[in-house]
């Protein structure tokens, strides 16, 4: 579909408007409305004023023209009335002469008046008047010439003509074409004057109309700008409210449906647009975090599944070991008694029969009876020791693999620590010295299986750190110090310190994060301390801290409350 040029213009304007900030939108809206009001008023004043001035000028001109014309009319009328007095005064020559000189003065004044009119018409571009005067200029000049001639003829050489002669001269003057044309001119002058009066009236009307027009333009522009301001205000509020509504709707939908694939439409480039972009980023961030959390939970689940099955297996194996070991220990008592009895019997034989037959003597030598008598007892003691040790390990393993949280019990921390050390015996016997600074601490409420796990994780990490340091330094004396003490605030402190490789400052802030490990793949899981933190803080309401210095060693302190949560 092709768009019309008007449509593309309006689209362009819309896009430009969307690019403005809200503040700019409001300012532009008001500026346009106010601008139209001001421009309208100025234009109204200007246009009205121009029309008014024009009408006023026309009126002044028409007034002046009218005034001059009526003056001219008056002058001509006066001259004509004097002319009519000539005949009756023929008998009174003195008066007539005086009248004639007055008449001549009038003529001269009228000529001057005509000159003024001509000047007026030229300087003020009064074309009609100018044409009118030019048309009749000769008529007036000729008439005045004829008239002055008549007056001279009437009085020649200081004497008056005969009355009859005078009458005939006057008669001839009236009959002459110049006088006839002059009369016509007077007639046209009257018509012209009426026309000028009409112009005067028209100019008056135009002046009033100009004032009305001025008022109409001003009122019109104010009304138009008010209407435009209203439309703009509605449009602006709509363009601001519409994107906000869209953003809110999507935000609500995201929350309601927990659908983080949704995105807010970014319609404008103003503050609302920025809000939409930020919200989209937030939604994406939440989605990413949720995905990560899901993956983490999954990994933890797998790990704990593995631990549970391992724990079950361990418990089973420990149980299977304990039974035969008990059996051995139980029978060892009898074996020892029987051996003691047999040895006592042998001794009795030796004293009662000092010289036994030679075959008996030979056999006793062959089996090294004297050594056998001593070694058999040692052998039985060592079997007893081995059985006891095996039972101890098997019991520790059984305790340790009690993964079920079950109910909170009063746990002997020292038993827990010792059992864990027994299980770790294989790794410890490579030369790690264990220092036990056990204080007088009460049994604390907790989950024994989980506490075993805590100490197992901390001690395993300490052994790892010590082994790492031993690799580079064969003369190093590895040591683990376990301290328990009763602290303030009803807390039991368990400190597990080592003089191993230590933790860099940078890593110290990360060690409790899930999957953080510095150990090679397959050895480190990065779960030990994360699980430990969870057990101590969340399950027991305690606290765990770490103090470490690179190459010097590390000390973890577990704070366990003496009252259950
Ligand atoms: N006693 C310690 N000495 C030195 N580093 C330690 C000690 N305990 C923990 N760490 C560091 O913390 C990291 C995380 O430990 P942990 O959560 O148990 O995971 P993992 O043992 O599987 O690496 C270890 O990789 C190690 O870098
Ligand atoms: Mg670990």
Keywords:
alpha+beta, 8% strand, binds magnesium ion, 565 residues, binds adenosine-5'-diphosphate, Heat Shock Protein 90, Methane Monooxygenase Hydroxylase, Chain G, domain 1
Secondary-structure topology with pairs:
Elements: H1 5-19, H2 22-86, H3 93-123, H4 127-154, E1 155-156, E2 159-160, H5 163-175, H6 177-257, H7 271-352, H8 358-366, H9 369-400, E3 409-411, H10 413-423, H11 425-428, E4 433-438, E5 444-446, H12 448-472, E6 479-486, E7 491-498, H13 505-508, H14 528-539, E8 543-549, E9 553-561
Parallel strand pairs: 4-6
Antiparallel strand pairs: 1-2, 3-5, 6-7, 7-9, 8-9
Bound molecules: adenosine-5'-diphosphate (ADP) and magnesium ion.
Magnesium ion binds next to helix 12.
Question: Which hetero ligands occur in this complex?
Answer: adenosine-5'-diphosphate, magnesium ion
Number of domains: 3
Query: What is the arithmetic mean of pLDDT?
Result: 85
State the strand order across the main sheet.
4-6-7-9-8
């Amino acid at each position: 579909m092709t768009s019309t040029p008007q449509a593309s213009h309006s689209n362009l304007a819309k896009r430009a408007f969307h690019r403005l900030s809200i503040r700019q939108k409001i300012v532009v809206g008001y500026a346009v409305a106010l601008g139209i009001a001001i421009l309208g008023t100025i234009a109204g004043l200007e246009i009205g004023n121009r029309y008014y001035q024009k009408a006023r000028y026309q009126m002044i001109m028409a007034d002046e023209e009218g005034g001059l014309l009526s003056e001219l009319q008056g002058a001509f009328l006066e001259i004509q009335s004097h002319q009519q007095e000539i005949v009756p005064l023929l008998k009174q020559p003195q008066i007539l002469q005086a009248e004639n000189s007055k008449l001549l003065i009038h003529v001269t004044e009228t000529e001057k008046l005509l000159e003024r009119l001509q000047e007026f018409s030229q300087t003020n571009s009064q074309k009609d008047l100018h044409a009118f005067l030019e048309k009749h200029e000769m008529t007036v000049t000729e008439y005045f010439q004829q008239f002055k001639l008549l007056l001279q003829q009437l009085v020649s050489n200081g004497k008056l003509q005969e009355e009859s002669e005078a009458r005939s001269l006057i008669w001839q003057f009236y009959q002459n074409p110049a006088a006839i044309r002059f009369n016509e001119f007077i007639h046209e002058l009257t018509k012209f004057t009426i026309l000028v009066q009409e112009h005067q009236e028209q100019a008056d009307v135009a002046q009033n109309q100009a004032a009305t027009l001025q008022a109409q333009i001003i009122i019109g522009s104010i009304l138009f700008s008010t209407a435009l301001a209203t439309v703009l205000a509605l449009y602006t509020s709509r363009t601001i409210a519409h994107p906000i509504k869209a953003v809110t709707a999507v935000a609500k939908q995201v929350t309601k449906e927990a659908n983080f694939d949704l995105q807010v439409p970014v319609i404008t480039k103003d503050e609302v647009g920025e809000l939409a972009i930020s919200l989209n980023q937030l939604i994406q961030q939440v989605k990413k975090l949720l995905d990560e959390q899901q993956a983490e939970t999954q990994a933890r689940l797998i790990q704990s599944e593995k631990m549970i099955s391992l724990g079950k297996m361990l418990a089973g194996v420990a149980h299977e070991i304990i039974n035969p070991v008990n059996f051995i220990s139980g029978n060892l008592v009898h074996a020892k008694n029987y051996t003691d009895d047999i040895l006592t019997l042998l001794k009795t034989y030796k004293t009662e029969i000092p010289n036994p037959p030679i075959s008996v003597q030979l056999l006793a030598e062959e089996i090294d009876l004297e050594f056998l008598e001593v070694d058999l007892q040692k052998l039985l003691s060592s079997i007893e020791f081995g059985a006891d040790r095996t039972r101890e390990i098997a019991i520790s393993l059984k305790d340790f693999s009690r993964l079920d949280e079950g109910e909170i019990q009063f746990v002997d921390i020292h038993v827990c620590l010792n059992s864990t050390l027994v299980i770790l015996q294989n790794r410890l016997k490579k030369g790690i010295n264990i220092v036990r600074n056990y204080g007088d601490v009460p049994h604390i409420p907790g989950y024994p299986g989980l506490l075993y796990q805590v100490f197992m994780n901390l001690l395993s990490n300490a052994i790892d750190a010590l082994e790492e340091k031993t690799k580079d330094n064969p003369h190093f004396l590895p040591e683990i110090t376990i301290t328990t003490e009763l602290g303030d605030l009803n807390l039991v402190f368990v400190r597990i310190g080592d003089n191993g490789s230590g933790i860099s400052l940078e890593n110290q802030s990360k060690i409790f994060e899930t999957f953080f490990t510095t150990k090679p793949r397959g050895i480190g899981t990065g779960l030990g301390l994360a699980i430990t933190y969870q057990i101590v803080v969340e399950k027991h309401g305690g606290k765990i801290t770490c103090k470490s210095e690179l190459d010097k060693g590390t000390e973890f302190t577990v704070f366990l409350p003496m009252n259950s949560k």
